[in-house]
Design goal:
Rossmann fold; alpha/beta
Length: 406
């Protein structure tokens, strides 16, 4: 009998020791960070390899319906990030010197050689994850990958290179992978990509005039059936219209640039605070769980002691009272974690206040962009189609006519 009591008491002590050890493991953190350098050009890139890149506004990755109040995802911040992040990727690609023109686009367009799309899966200042896809104008896939990075505290230092975003490693990795994908494409096919992009743009605006130049296979990839004559007047007019398209995209990018620079300081401040609060929140969650476990273990040990024939009521009382205090402490830590989450929410709201629409000058007139950039881009596309109709004397495609009268 005495041996059984000792064994059960020993089990209770061992259980308590194991949970204490688990608590020690839960509150200690070993965080490793990886840095990726951007591959920059060391010599002039041949003109044929300077493909134009369009980066579509990122998908903010917001769940449908009301967000979970327990999550650390703030819709206001994500919507701002969906405009800020593609512009910073644009500046990273430009810094590499490996590409032609690089634009941020409100939506997909057929006028660029390479199109990049991404969804924000995670962004809290500490961890960032993006799902990125890229395709060239022929429909060939270049990227389909999730990029993840953990951000060190020094990334927010005021003494760092201010041109380096706290998420710079992730942007560099995307840019390097795009470059690697381009290097795998033979020079002859790079020219074909440029030709297909031009013909897709032409066929979108005037399918009747440019029918038969392109064909699609079962994988929805484009190939050139024939090219228009170099002196084709219709081609010359189309190229002039395409230049106007570029001018429109440049104007839209001036808007995104203004938004980008206005958001730069508050967004970095938000990420820095969010990183600190996220770490604090995770620590408090772990601490609360450990206290719950320790409290429960203490009560269990006391009950096992008494149930095993222990006759020292003081030991039982101390175990029970200690366990209750541990559980109360866990409740207190959970409350602190809730306060930390509320702090993040407030930061998100203040961030969104900085992301108000900006004024932009268009065709000599100053307009306030109160609608979405997508709506503005569609408006300009309708304008270009009208210009093409007037310059060529051909009717616009049926969908364009319907959009103009809708």
């Amino acid at each position: 009998m005495r041996r059984a009591v000792v064994a059960r008491a020993g089990f209770a002590v061992a259980l308590l020791g194991a949970i204490l050890a688990a608590g020690g493991c839960a509150t200690s953190r070993s965080v490793e960070y990886e840095h990726v350098e951007l591959v920059r050009t060391e010599q002039e890139v041949p003109a044929a390899e300077l493909l134009d890149v369009g980066i579509v506004l990122f998908d903010p990755g917001l769940p449908e319906g009301e967000p979970d109040p327990k999550s650390l995802v703030f819709p206001e911040v994500r919507r701002a990030e969906s405009r800020y992040m593609p512009y910073h990727l644009k500046t990273t690609l430009e810094t590499s010197g490996q590409w032609g023109s690089v634009w941020v686009l409100p939506e997909k367009t057929d006028s660029v050689d390479v199109l990049v799309w991404a969804r924000i899966d995670r962004s809290d200042g500490l961890d960032v994850a993006l799902r990125v896809g890229a395709w060239d104008a022929t429909g060939r896939e270049w990227l389909n990958k999730t990029y993840q990075a953990r951000v060190p505290e020094k990334a927010y230092s005021k003494y760092r290179d201010q041109a380096q975003d706290p998420y710079q490693t992730l942007y560099n990795e995307i840019a390097n992978d795009l470059l690697e994908a381009r290097r795998k494409v033979p020079a002859k096919e790079l020219q074909a990509i440029r030709d297909v992009a031009e013909l897709r743009f032409a066929a979108d605006l005037a399918p009747a005039a440019f029918n038969g130049y392109l064909a699609q296979d079962r994988k929805n990839q484009y190939r050139i059936e024939r090219l228009p004559a170099a002196d084709d007047p219709m081609l010359a007019r189309m190229r002039a219209v395409r230049e106007r398209e570029y001018a429109v995209v440049d104007t839209i990018n001036e808007y995104y640039a203004g938004l980008y620079y206005d958001l730069d300081k508050p967004y970095e401040d938000w990420r820095r605070v969010s990183r600190e609060e996220t770490l604090k929140y995770k620590d408090l969650q772990r601490s609360a769980m450990v206290r719950y476990l320790l409290g429960g273990a203490a009560i269990l040990a006391a009950v096992m002691y008494e149930g095993s024939g222990g006759d020292n009521s003081a030991i039982t009382m101390i175990g029970v009272m200690g366990g209750i205090e541990g559980i109360k402490a866990g409740l207190g830590k959970s409350a602190e974690a809730g306060i930390a989450r509320e702090g993040l929410n407030e930061q998100g709201k203040s961030m969104s206040a900085e992301a108000e629409p900006l004024l932009v000058e268009v065709e000599g007139q100053t307009k306030r962009l109160t609608g979405t950039a997508e709506e503005k881009f569609r408006e300009w596309r309708r304008l270009l189609k009208e210009i093409y109709e007037k310059e060529t004397g051909l009717p616009p495609p049926p969908d364009a006519a319907a959009a103009a009268t809708g």
